[in-house]
Specification:
two-stranded antiparallel sheet, 7 strands, binds flavin mononucleotide, alpha/beta, 19% strand, globular, single chain, 5-stranded parallel sheet
């Protein structure tokens, strides 16, 4: 059986990001289902703000090339992101925008075409970042990513997590771990 490879990241660079914590729950679920998961920290990647003039004069920055290599090496994406002003965060959109830029001779959207994604969000607010997921789903769908219908939003995130990073609500914990598992199984099926 082929091992599914999944890239996991949060759409927040905040040190104590709730979304980084919940994506780790999904990572554990995906690993338990047999996937090989790489965790990417966008704070460490330090992508510059996308600028077409910069791209034209200097090409893809080293961080952009690294991101694209990582994306090409994985078939699945586990993304947890907060919403900022009811939509995707700038850091997440910036990451998607850089990854969408072809290197010379590369077909368009090669980092996204055929990928499968599972989405989740967390926020201290009552909606848990759900509105941002609507936009994220649309963006990814438009760039050829198959987004799993299941998603989880964790409201009141500041009260929802234990010190060890697990969720207090066992159902929520299982739902997020289950997202990772579903993604691993879906990628495996598509690779079979
Ligand atoms: C610029 C900005 C806009 C925000 N807009 C929203 C929002 O629309 N909805 C929401 O639930 N939370 C919003 N928040 C609060 C974030 O959900 C909160 O900071 C959350 O902890 C960020 O996720 P993280 O913990 O993964 O960094 C906003 C925060 C910032 C900084």
């Amino acid at each position: 059986m082929v091992t599914p490879r999944i890239l996991a990241f949060a759409g927040s660079t905040r040190r104590d990001s709730f979304n980084r914590k919940i994506v780790r729950i999904a990572v554990a679920g995906a690993r338990a289902a047999g996937a090989e998961v790489t965790e990417l920290d966008l704070a460490e990647l330090k992508l510059p703000l996308f600028d077409e003039d910069l791209e034209k004069s200097e090409g893809l920055p080293a961080a952009g090339l690294k991101l694209k290599q990582m994306m090409r090496a994985h078939q699945g994406l586990l993304i947890a992101s907060p919403e900022y002003n009811s939509s995707v965060t700038a850091v997440l959109k910036n990451t998607i925008d850089w990854a969408s830029r072809p290197e010379p001779g590369e077909p368009p959207l090669s980092c996204f075409t055929g990928k499968v994604a599972a989405l989740m969000s967390a926020s201290p607010g009552a909606l848990g970042g759900l509105r941002g997921l609507v936009h994220l789903r649309a963006i990814l769908g438009n760039i050829q990513v198959l987004v799993l219908p299941d998603q989880v939003a964790v409201p009141k995130a500041h009260e929802a997590l234990n010190e060890d990073g697990s969720l207090k609500d066992a159902k929520q914990q299982a739902a997020i771990a289950g997202l990772g598992e579903k993604l691993a199984k879906m990628v495996q099926k598509l690779m079979a």
